[in-house]
Amino acid sequence: MGPASGENMHTEERVNVPKLTHDSSNWVDYRDCILWLLESQNIDTHIADDTMPTSYTTDGKISSLEPPEHWKKEETVIRQVIGPSMLPTAFTCIKGQKMVKGAWEMLKRIYKEKTHGLAMDVMRRFRNTRCGESDSVRTHFEHMANVCEQLAAMGKAISDDDYMDILLTSLPHSYDQLCTSISNSTRVSRQPLTADNLKAMILAKFTQREIKKQKSNTKDEAFAADTPKSKKQCSNCNKCGHLKADCWAKGGGKEGQGPKRKDKAQDSTAMVEKNELEVWAVVEEVSAKEDQGDFIGTAGSPLARLGQAHDAATELYDSGAS
Length: 322
What we know:
2 strands; about 60% helix; elongated
């Protein structure tokens, strides 16, 4: 949020106020900051009165300024502080107001409506937030605390009891037994349980789990390094020679990354097809030679008999090969 500055008539110091956001999420903080600033400089009467109060006349001339001039200068100073602290869309809504009071009332009306709708949406998401089993409970609690502060800034402060209930319902199911134990202990001891104490106990359990997990991972790594490859047994496929992290089977750390294997049925089919092609090639060759023998000599001639003997030997040899 960028600061806006203005010169106050009572001091020469420059004052800073937060930048009013477009979604009105910081309206309550902005409003309280402006009120605190005006009260600290004794000029908060400008947001309550349209005209100069009689107290200005009673005080008389201040810093060589007559009461009306004194009042007018304070109006100008407040405008210089409020104007630059908002976006152009909001400034357009109030710039037509002649007095600070009118501008302030207009600003409150606009942002009160915006804040109400935004707060309801934030509250709904806040109550429905859940921490996953694999998520960090510490990070989850930090997020919930930030949202709780955001709601408070919108004027929707959450009580400590409600905050504890929301935290408990947002935890993973693995913490159910711990939450029950905490609840029983609190009831027996009759000591009030605060949200801070609840978070401390749950974070202690979370830290304990994280340490145990780290030790387990370190132990597994050391075991994997010291164990010969031939004696390693995968807990995923129950085969030896590797661990789950390197397993190619379904559920393993390298699932589907193994070399592709040919299907035995496909290999068998391909072999049968190859043999059939070879047999047909032999038949074609024999047929062609028989035709050639008939062409060279007539039946019963020496050439014909020679061709038939040659063809029979060739056919016998090729059939044995197939």
